[in-house]
Structure formats: structure tokens, C-alpha cells
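Same chain as my last thread, 274 residues:
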Amino acid sequence: MLSPNGSGMDAVTMALVILGSGFIGFLFAPLGLGGGLLFAPLLHYGLGWEINGALLIVSLVLSATVAWGSGLRHRKEGHISDERFKQSLWGALPGAMLGVLVVASMSGSFDLLFKGLSLIFVTWAIAKTLRSTDTGIVQEQEPNLPMLGAGVASGGFLSSVLAIGAGVIYVPVLRSYGGLESRKAIGTSLHIMMVVLPVSILAHFSVLDSSQLDVLTSNLFLIFSLFVVVVISANFGARFGIANVSEHRTMQLFVAVLFVIGIRYILDLSSNLF
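reply #2:
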């Protein structure tokens, strides 16, 4: 098995990357996040993959795997609003398709712009979540459909551009504008990803060049192994979170992850500016 630069990939590196992907799936599944924030760096730094269409697709595949493994567990536990899920798709799917078109139309130096945009959204999501948790458990209420649609459309757009699940956007949007309590917001966020991410993956596939396609075909066994490990770990992570972590604690963990995401974006932006 070869890395994208043509050098051999040793078994230890493969094992560490597979274990790392399992940890990401376990960590992110209870929070309604896909894990793309960490999958992409894992592939880039762990395997030496270039940040291109091939990496975006694999990161999205793994994020979709977390979403499916955790989303089905949340549905089994009743933590899902089918009404908000269907309403959200009208915004999230067009947003995701627009994101793919933007990526395909740009020469590659869009990193600074979109990480800056993501940092704005992460900051907003932290503020929204903290304001919601200050009042305790949020009771379900009537949705603000225009704001819900705009929010999930932004999430779908960022999902395609940054190869993330976009739960960082979906969860606070569903809480604030969808009128959902935390657990249902998380479960509904995962279900949005279960539909949006496969669509985004197929759209990215349609614009791959031959060299990026070669990276995927030469690493099919590794990609399949990552898929299997992530779906198992995401299912266990969701089961553990639902059974053992309170709603308030879940949202505290969610905010902590948001802070980590924000710090990463600040570091990335700083390295580009200075």
C-alpha cells in the first residue's frame, strides 16, 4: 500500500491512524458531530496525504460513518425530530451542493477565506449554546423556519468546503431556531448529516482528477478498515453518551469541543497571516 507521494506505508503508521480514527468516532458521536475536523488532519499529517479532493472525500466518508453509526443509535433511543429533519434538508442540501461548486471553481487558495468564515460560525455557536444552557434544559418550542433554513444551509455549505459533518452548526441552529432540546438537536443533526454527507461525497467524486482518483483506488483496504473501525466506535460512543452522560454535561462537552475547534482555526489563520 502506498501513500500519495509514492512511498510505502508501514504497518505501525496504518495501525495508529486506524486507532486514531476509532477514538475520533467514539469522541464525536455523542456530541452530534461528524469528526471531520480531526479526520482531515489525521489523514494529512498521519498519512502524508495532500489536502485535495481525495482527502476531502475520505474525511466526508468517515464523518458520514460517524453520523450513521451514532444517528441510528439516537433514533433507537427516540432522540430525533423527523419534522425538523425534513425541514432542514431543504436548506442543508442546496448549501452542500453550492459548497462543492465553490471548491471545484477555485484554484485551491480558498483555505484562508473559509477558515475565517468557519471561525465566525464557531464563535457564534459557542455564544448560542452557552446562552441556551444558562437557562437549564430547553423545552421544545415553535421553530423559526427562515432562520433554521439559513443556518442549516450554512452548515451544508461548510460541510462540503471543509470536509466536516457540520454538527457544530446544525446543533445550535436546531436548538435556537428549531426549538429542540439538546438530545433531539444532536440526533436530528446526525440525521441531516446522514443524508447531506453522501450527497456531498458523490458531488466531490464527480469533479475528481485522475491523480486524486488513483489515491483512493490504491488505498481501498485502508479506507475500508477506517470505515469499519469508525462505525463500530461511533455506535459505542453514542451508546455510552446517551446512557451515562446527562443533557447538561453533554452540552458542556459540546462547548469544550467548540473551543478546541475555534483554537485550531485561529492557529491555522495565524500561520497563514504571519
